Amino acid sequence: SDAVTFFGRTQAGIVTPAQDRLHFVAFDVLTSDRARLVQLLKDWSAAAARMTAGKDAGEIGATAGILEAPPDDTGEAIGLPASGLTITVGFGPTLFRDATGKDRFGLAARKPAALADLPRFPGDTIDPAISGGDICVQACANDPQVAVHAIRNLARIGMGVVSVRWSQLGFGRTSSTSTAQATPRNLFGFKDGTANLKAEETDLLDQHLWVRAGDGPEWMTGGSYMVTRKIRMLIETWDRSPLGDQENIVGRTKGEGAPIGQSREFDEPDLTSTSIPTDAHVRLAHPTVNNGARLLRRGYNFVDGSDGLGRLNAGLFFIAYQRDPRTHFVPIQLNLARHDAMNEYLRHVSSGLFACPPGVSGPDDYWGRALF
Ligand code: HEM
Q1: Residue ranges of the Dyp-type peroxidase C-terminal domain (predicted)?
Q2: Does residue 12 lie in a domain region?
């Protein structure tokens, strides 16, 4: 079957081979009642276990209930297979202490140091209305209707407890997270995900992806930190730049995706060679210039209609997982924000940071149980 197992030591949707579609949502918690929040996480875990198995969100289903009550599933996924659906949850810094400094749920003492707010990066044009959030849910599937159905039903179940702060649809994965996958292309037309962390590289995943015992509060062991950045790509300007310039900006060839000066996609970039410019993206993002840091990138293309100025509102919804953003995303992005030739074509418009707890072990467990 095409169902991805929901229960496990780690959450699905991180090293799971990246599916083609994304529906991402960030919620704010409306209540300050800890018991209601915990009940929601239990209800969500049960619904997620069902939906990822290709079933209705509730036990009765979309059409079998009494006529006097709203159904416990919304119905648009009837007849559709599980489609590789994964649902991954993360907790934002504001769940532990809100913007006014209030510790609504008595969680402040359990906030990981790694969940420190991201700094403002040079050139940032972040819109707070589409950034942050108390809880995020990443739904990935190979059918967009299945991903939307999952988010919609979780929002429905959460009515009165959480409200949607912002959301994002994505199509076309921009990374591979398994060596079994072919490398896809982003909206600049370049292969994206070549040098990504892959599911098969288990030693590297232990080193760079999964939070280990002793890293911080015990409830995050087996979890991972997620950074999201909605990055508008000025594709019309890009499309008017010569092929050679495009390749120099990325540091790889457009066809094969090989490092400039080499011939095959998976050849290791030779950073001692001057053929890769000093301001090329892959040089500045490379582990050798970032203290060895590696990310698991899991982003998606987006086109949110047009911008009213004759341009497509298009770009990359960047998602990266790591063991600690302070040693991984932050230094890499600082390096890119300062020096990357690609910046001329990019605008970072939204930012998010979430602590994704370990996996839900079985039907009696729920997302974040060790936190509460
Ligand atoms: C590599 C595109 C944003 C981190 C690459 C590659 C491309 C690319 C085409 C080469 C293929 C590959 O190895 O995957 C883009 C575009 C971006 C963007 C179009 C924005 C819209 C970012 C951001 C970060 C990042 C924000 C992290 C802060 C990396 C890393 C690599 C990489 C770590 C691998 C470098 C290596 O080890 O060779 N990116 N990227 N990228 N990118 Fe980006």
Answers
A1: 183-360
A2: no
CA 351: distance to chain centroid? 11
For the chain, the domain total comes to: 1
ipTM for the complex shown: 0.98
pLDDT tens, position by position, 143-182: 999 999 999 999 999 999 999 999 999 999 999 999 999 9
Q: pTM of the predicted model, to two decimals?
A: 0.98
Distance from Cα 281 to the centre of ligand 1, integer Å:
7
Residue at 312 is within a domain = yes
Residue with token string 């998602």: 319
Helix, strand, coil percent content, the chain, rounded in steps of 5: 25, 20, 55
Provide residues with CB under 6 Å of ligand 1.
Answer: 186, 188, 190-196, 229, 231, 233, 250, 252, 269, 281-282, 285-287, 295, 315-316, 318, 329, 332-333, 336, 346
Q: Which atom of ligand 1 is nearest to 315's Cα?
A: 21
C-beta separation of 282 from 251 below 8 A: yes
In tens, the pLDDT along 345-364 reads 999 999 999 999 999 999 99
| Dist. CA 214 → ligand 1 center (Å) | 30
CB atoms within 10 A of CB 102: 11
Range of the domain at 63: 21-371
Assess if residue 10 is contained within a domain: no
Residue 16 domain-assigned (yes or no): no
